[in-house]
Amino acid sequence: MERSPPQSPGPGKAGDAPNRRSGHVRGARVLSPPGRRARLSSPGPSRSSEAREELRSRLLGLIERSRVVIFSKSYCPHSTRVKELFSSLGVECNVLELDQVDDGARVQEVLSEITNQKTVPNIFVNKVHVGGCDQTFQAYQSGLLQKLLQEDSAYDYDLIIIGGGSGGLSCAKEAAILGKKVMVLDFVVPSPQGTSWGLGGTCVNVGCIPKKLMHQAALLGQALCDSRKFGWEYNQQVRHNWETMTKAIQNHISSLNWGYRLSLREKAVAYVNSYGEFVEHHKIKATNKKGQETYYTAAQFVIATGERPRYLGIQGDKEYCITSDDLFSLPYCPGKTLVVGASYVALECAGFLAGFGLDVTVMVRSILLRGFDQEMAEKVGSYMEQHGVKFLRKFIPVMVQQLEKGSPGKLKVLAKSTEGTETIEGVYNTVLLAIGRDSCTRKIGLEKIGVKINEKSGKIPVNDVEQTNVPYVYAVGDILEDKPELTPVAIQSGKLLARRLFGASLEKCDYINVPTTVFTPLEYGCCGLSEEKAIEVYKKENLEIYHTLFWPLEWTVAGRENNTCYAKIICNKFDRDRVIGFHILGPNAGEVTQGFAAAMKCGLTKQLLDDTIGIHPTCGEVFTTLEITKSSGLDITQKGCG
Amino acid sequence: MAAMAVALRGLGGRFRWRTQAVVGGVRGAARAGQRDYDLLVVGGGSGGLACAKEAAQLGRKVAVVDYVEPSPQGTRWGLGGTCVNVGCIPKKLMHQAALLGGLIQDAPNYGWEVAQPVPHDWRKMAEAVQNHVKSLNWGHRVQLQDRKVKYFNIKASFVDEHTVCGVAKGGKEILLSADHIIIATGGRPRYPTHIEGALEYGITSDDIFWLKESPGKTWHPTDVALECAGFLTGIGLDTTIMMRSIPLRGFDQQMSSMVIEHMASHGTRFLRGCAPSRVRRLPVGQLQVTWEDRTTGKEDTGTFDTVLWAIGRVPDTRSLNLEKAGVDTSPDTQKILVDSREATSVPHIYAVGDVVEGRPELTPTAIMAGRLLVQRLFGGSSDLMDYDNVPTTVFTPLEYGCVGLSEEEAVARHGQEHVEVYHAHYKPLEFTVAGRDASQCYVKMVCLREPPQLVLGLHFLGPNAGEVTQGFALGIKCGASYAQVMRTVGIHPTCSEEVVKLRISKRSGLDPTVTGC
């Protein structure tokens, strides 16, 4: 046994405590408790959080500066094994024996906040949290540990991000702001129809942005009808021009693509328009359009490759069908369209296409908007049906044939019933598949470095700090298992991840009560639990559900239907009627829902809703006057106006 | 010429407070237990009707008296008060008409082949709006009937502290007595009677929504109601606003000036620091307005079809004979003085809504205050109305929603060094393709500076501000901190997500323009 020379316990210096047993490992140094000094100088309870903060930053400082840190307990056999492992590798470690320092329990607490691991030993190698004893030995066997032990400077980058979508870009920018050397690899594999796009990922190019703009175009069609009732005079039949709209939308998207390029450049993030795949630990191969290969290494990686639309796997689907990847830049009006699927993508696309006056049919295998509140989903569907969208329920396509080429051409679709042997046939100009999306995780060499994916879904399981099973590899966005597939979630988690990795922040992404809105012709906004989920979690008898139909003021004069818009909240009776589910079907549902989501973060209750004054006349105000419970069975239709 | 008709009608208009026949000898006629009603509500607007319906629901015998004194221009309307007839409802509908005009202009950018410009027909809009209002009047009547609330279309004044005398249209008088009386008579637009021609030729918000013909080129001397000018401009009328001093007094001044900036850039003319001195009818029928520029002292004139006064409101208390009941009013404002339980100087007489001193003049406030009052009176409740953090929205062309403190008020209460203001200039997604200017789309959140940075106020300027603000008002009511709001995930792509993305503080001096996605 030997002891390292005593050092001052100030930040950044790891010294040993006198009269304490040193570690068991040759070359190891025992550290004084980093929090001790803070505690001595700030005894008051009011300053305990400050002291904790100081302890945390000392721990992070220690991790930052040490090649290897082992948080250990002197009597723990697993700790001993790890210490012996490093000793056998001839690596000098900083060892902190938590049972031998005054603040051991608090260190362990703070550590579990940082790493989400409550047990010892807890090992860091070159700032990377390796995990406990088993993980360390696994890493040793896979060669990862040896890689980690190499100096940081050996890598080309501090962080390489694969995927330049919402999550990847937010993470890249944040890491760059924190002074790190960052690279983003982004490459759009063209769709089977040959569509590709620029930097920014799904949301900007083939998702939220063009979708909302086309939704807006459809709403304008409705506004034009309404406007006659409000005194605007024009007699001509107003036609919609697909090319004009698409060109305007694509111009906007190009400006966004350009903006992303610019902001990466401003922050000195290296952007490479190449396809990235892992070839070995800490090393990826980047292949550009011309097939040229380049290799890059980095200390840490973030996978943010997102998802792409799924195909049916039937005859003719890849040849003749389009997906949302193609629709928004389609150079010609799609004409009579069959939309296959009942996801929000399917319903949104069907909604705006019908809004342009096109003949639209939606083919649904089972339920609408799986995962969403089913009462709301059915209302979304029935509004669409009343507004001209046809639904073919319980059918799946089995074959797509081209009858005529053209822009658009003519396709024959053969479909069969999911319940019997019945088959039907239809002729459409365009068939749009929106049956789901697949994670882009199977062709990026994850198996080469041992990153686990869910074999069935292709999604990547991560812990609550977005870390995969390989400690230096993280993941954000739509590819995460059991996390919402939403742009703002990806942005938030990417940003917070960068702050935790490089900014000494502890804040984790909060995936609870994430609000969202489906931009169907009648918009549907929600936050928290669906009624089904709430019943499953809390049991029906413990819930009180308040609901009402309402008639937006603007709809009255426009002569649009009453008793169509609907508001519902789900309250937990045994938690002071806390609102656990918020649902609204009506115009501007997204704008309405956002603030209520913030209120739910702050513990919104029914009482608080009742106590809040409405803004008159808006749709949002209905939530401040909800009186009728579902259990009462009372009539919620509006007669005239309240 | 359209507006000529308006003004001509005005010539025949009369504006006189009906002198009240004081009925003698009825004092003390009704004693407790023998009185006609448990509750008598004077005024059938938002607050009054809410009180009446709530009390009826609690099983009480209730009467409502309501009477609309015609405006000086002769405009009258049905049951429901200001909000329904000459306030929020017709205003928001005409605002919507103007918004639709903007959307028609957007439409070609989104592929709709509409030949521009599209003309607007005032008559058609007004008729549609008025029909809706009439259906609401009817709805209120039916609701009272359903709840067995007795409704009298009479003009009421106090005889004693439990008795009210009502005069019907034909002059017939009736006496009504009640154990509890709630005064909810609201207010009416103020006329600048010292200005020559103001009363004869000018109209107010009491008239504008009921005009059969377009008001044509209009002129508003106003420091409060920008909304009318906004929708008139929006439907293509030449509109000028004259302001003596600052717009939207009491609101956040940065936001107010941005509202004005937006209106000015969309065609509303502003004459600032000017005061009108007289209105004259020209031989051609138009109105000539003369005003003095306060800064230069010079006099100037302009010709308009319509002059709309929007210089504030006066409470409708003068004809109530409040002194007979002993109800105190403020000598300055003539508004009724009440305590936190809405009780006046006479314990069983209460007041709610715009007629009350020091309350926000908002429909939902009146409704809630009324309902809570009745629940305390008859429902065994002790809940008081909380007038803090009342959210509201100004439906100017670019809507302005707010809740909580203005920046000035926050600084005044807590001191500059304790206040942190987060702000952002954003561009609504729909504006991009439409090629609209978003210079005034702006959001700011006023917080305490010390962690956890409690939110004191939220101010939002942009489309659908009312819808955006409502939920956040709840958040503020829940005691939201800046950190909690920031932990809320945005809804993409909306305007309201800008609120949960506010990262730039004013103090930092950084550019608050939102770029990218």
Automatic annotation (TrEMBL), chain A:
Q: Identify this protein by name.
A: thioredoxin-disulfide reductase (NADPH)
Where does the Glutaredoxin domain lie? 68-130
Which PROSITE patterns does the entry mention?
GLUTAREDOXIN_2, PYRIDINE_REDOX_1
A molecular-function term among this protein's GO annotations:
flavin adenine dinucleotide binding
E.C. number(s) listed in UniProt: 1.8.1.9
Q: Does the keyword Transferase apply?
A: no
* Organism in which the protein naturally occurs: Pan paniscus (Pygmy chimpanzee)
Q: What class of enzyme is it?
A: oxidoreductase
From TrEMBL, chain B:
Please verify whether the record's keywords include Calcium.
no
**SUPFAM superfamilies attached here?**
FAD/NAD(P)-binding domain, FAD/NAD-linked reductases, dimerisation (C-terminal) domain
* Enzyme class, first EC level, given as a word: oxidoreductase
Q: What is its EC number?
A: 1.8.1.9
Q: Which residues form the Pyridine nucleotide-disulphide oxidoreductase dimerisation domain?
A: 390-501
**Binding-site residues for FAD, renumbered to this chain:** 92, 354
Q: Which cofactor does it need?
A: FAD
> What's one GO-annotated cellular component?
mitochondrion
Q: What range(s) does the FAD/NAD(P)-binding domain occupy?
A: 37-370
Q: Which InterPro entries match?
A: FAD/NAD-bd_sf (IPR036188), FAD/NAD-binding_dom (IPR023753), FAD/NAD-linked_Rdtase_dimer_sf (IPR016156), GSHR/TRXR-like (IPR046952), Pyr_nuc-diS_OxRdtase (IPR001100), Pyr_nucl-diS_OxRdtase_dimer (IPR004099), Pyr_OxRdtase_I_AS (IPR012999), Thioredoxin/glutathione_Rdtase (IPR006338)
> What is the UniProt remark on how the cofactor binds and its stoichiometry?
Binds 1 FAD per subunit.
Q: Which cysteines are joined by disulfide bonds?
A: 83-88
Q: Which GO terms describe its biological process?
A: cell redox homeostasis; cellular response to oxidative stress; glutathione metabolic process
* Entry annotation: catalytic residues: 492
**Name of the protein:** thioredoxin-disulfide reductase (NADPH)
Provide the species name: Pan paniscus (Pygmy chimpanzee)
Quick one: which gene encodes this?
TXNRD2
